[in-house]
Every structure is written in C-alpha cells, then in structure tokens.
C-alpha cells in the first residue's frame, strides 16, 4: 500500500516537511512519536510514501496512528472523509483546507445551535472570528485539514492565548449540519 497524493499532502502540511527522502521521513516519524506517543519504523514509512517497492500492507494500528496524527479518529474515518474531497465546493459536501484561499472565511454549523466562522490563515490553520454556542472562542487558532458534511469536525490542535489545548471535536454525535465558503460580499458585512 502506498499513500495517495492527498494523504501525502496532509502529512506535508501537518509536519511542515518535504518528505522526499529518508532524513525528512525520520523527522516525520519523530513528530508523530512526539504527538501520538507511538513509533512507526522508517522502512514502513518509506513503503507508505512509495520510496520502497514492497507490497505488504501496513498494520491497521500503523494507519490509525497516522490518521490520528492528521486529526482523524481512525484510518476508516479518514478514508471516508478524504474519499469525498471536492475542491470545487460545488455540492457543499466537503471543503479541503488546501483548496481554501488564504484569508477566506469558512463557516460550519452543528446541532443543536452552534455556528462557527473561521478565517483561513495558511495550510490547515484557521482563526475563529465568530462563535455561537461552541466551546471555541473568538481568537482561538485551530488546525483542521477537512470539513465534511455529516461527519464530526476533527481538529488536531486548538491554541488559545498562545497555549495549546490539544485536539477538539465538533459535532461528535450528528456531524456538521452545514459547511460553506463565505462569499466576499458576506465577508465585508
């Protein structure tokens, strides 16, 4: 098994690394171990990144570690969410951070009455600019690679006043009830 381009992209975005050689993959392994308290072998990572020809499938636990590092609950949830990536926003089903222009606003809602508006900073980093009834606060900075309709929003880190609060999940039970890219006209209001 070799990761698809989107998973590789998410790993590059999250880690801030190029991931094009063994030294870069070692740094990624260290970052994953630091966050997840789990170790993945270099040869396993090279296989997953397509740098070694080997058709063995990785252990499910290895895939779950990587998915959790990227902000997903497990590999199956990540696979389902990334399968539905639609960078054109045509159907409103998925918004991938890599397709959101910097400075743009993303708004999501979930039951019973939560609405959050985020300004895209860079990569998968957003700043909360509007909050109704959620645990996030205006000014919080979050890491979110994907917004998927009807799935929980998995945030890998929330930073409040310069302090990391850790991972956060919005819409755990029912998922996000709406997601949208806010238009420039609405942004000016």
At a glance:
This protein has helices at 5-15, 22-36, 42-48, 60-69, 75-83, 184-188; strands at 94-96, 105-110, 114-122, 125-132, 141-143, 146-148, 153-160, 163-170, 178-181.
Write a structural description.
The chain has 189 residues and is α+β, with helices and mostly antiparallel strands. Helices cover 30% and strands 28% of the residues. A hairpin with a 3-residue loop joins strand 2 and strand 3. Helix 4 crosses helix 5. The longest helix has 15 residues, at 22-36. The radius of gyration is 17 Å and the shape is elongated. The N and C termini lie far apart (48 Å).
Helix and strand arrangement:
Blueprint: H1 5-15, H2 22-36, H3 42-48, H4 60-69, H5 75-83, E1 94-96, E2 105-110, E3 114-122, E4 125-132, E5 141-143, E6 146-148, E7 153-160, E8 163-170, E9 178-181, H6 184-188
Helix pairs in contact: 4-5
Q: Output the radius of gyration.
A: 17 Å
Largest sheet, in brief, is: 7 strands, antiparallel
Multimerization state: single chain
First-to-last CA distance: 48 Å
Mean pLDDT rating: 87
3D shape: elongated
Order of helices and strands: HHHHHEEEEEEEEEH
What class, by secondary structure content? alpha+beta
- Provide the β-strand percentage band: 25-35%
The strands making up the biggest β-sheet line up spatially as 8-7-5-4-3-2-9
